[in-house]
Specification:
Number of helices: 9
Strand content: 5-15%
Structural class: alpha+beta
Strand order of the largest sheet: 4-3-7-6-5
Radius of gyration: 19 Å
Number of domains: 2
Helix content: 40-55%
CATH topology of the largest domain: Beta-Lactamase
Order of helices and strands: HHHEEHHEEHHHEEEH
Largest sheet: 5 strands, antiparallel
Shape: elongated
Distance between the termini: 40 Å
Length: 233
């Protein structure tokens, strides 16, 4: 992956963050006006063109603005993302206080999805797969595209198999997959954030799936909080 200088990196970070927030292509005028690096619109346009040439930005249709590519999201995740400490969704329940395992897991997934506004999945062998936040994800503008909605509907049908793949292939406790990096079909449209508990029993996997324009910092925090809470079940 290409190494970016400080100015290129700052402009790419601004574009990724702005696109995550607005879902609208970002113009060179916006980069010039709203970033603190002090470049003219012409200079911003030239840098954005260079970033496009090396695969970090693309120009949708006839828009004058640019949007991030999968390569840009990967650079953002690997180099620019802050570890947010946004919200503690776990209530502090201990193993001894657990009475109804499935119901508590279901409620825990629901509260996390509501708090962070994301689609989440929790799976543990021998129990059902718990889904929350489906309504939230369909509010994202990407789901106005028929192929994206169809792909997500197919993905929902395959959730048990996807969860099993995560169980089988987990090599780290936390990973972020973008586009075709995903281990499931139709992954090209989405990003996923995956976490797992330790290998003692019960072993959980938790993951969030959303558009590639997802708020990676917020969703990463949510999945980390899920795993933190699941360690106590």
């Amino acid at each position: 992956m290409n190494t970016l200088n400080d100015r290129e990196s700052s402009i790419l970070e601004y574009i990724v963050r702005d696109y995550i927030l607005t879902a609208e292509p970002v113009s060179s005028a916006s980069v010039s006006k709203k970033t603190r690096i002090g470049v003219s619109p012409a200079t911003a346009r030239n840098i954005m063109a260079d970033l496009g040439d090396i695969g970090y930005l693309e120009q949708p249709h006839t828009s004058s603005g640019r949007i991030p590519t999968d390569k840009a999201y990967r650079y953002f995740v690997d180099n620019l993302m802050n570890d947010a400490n946004l919200l503690n969704t776990y209530s502090g329940r201990t193993r001894k206080e657990r009475h109804n395992f499935d119901e508590e897991i279901r409620n825990f997934a629901r509260k996390t999805a509501e708090a962070f506004g994301i689609f989440t999945v929790i799976a543990v062998p021998g129990h059902e797969v718990f889904l929350s936040g489906i309504d939230e994800i369909f509010k994202e503008p990407e789901f106005k595209e028929l192929e994206v909605s169809r792909a997500f509907a197919k993905l929902l049908d395959d959730i048990p198999e996807i969860a099993e793949k995560y169980h089988e292939t987990r090599k780290t406790s936390f990973s972020i997959y973008i586009g075709n990096e995903n281990i499931f079909s139709e992954g090209e449209y989405f990003s996923s954030i995956f976490g797992s508990t330790a290998y003692d029993e019960p072993s959980f996997v938790a993951f969030s799936i959303g558009p590639k324009r997802m708020d990676y910092e917020r969703c990463s925090t949510a999945v980390r909080k899920l795993i933190e809470g699941l360690e106590c079940f």
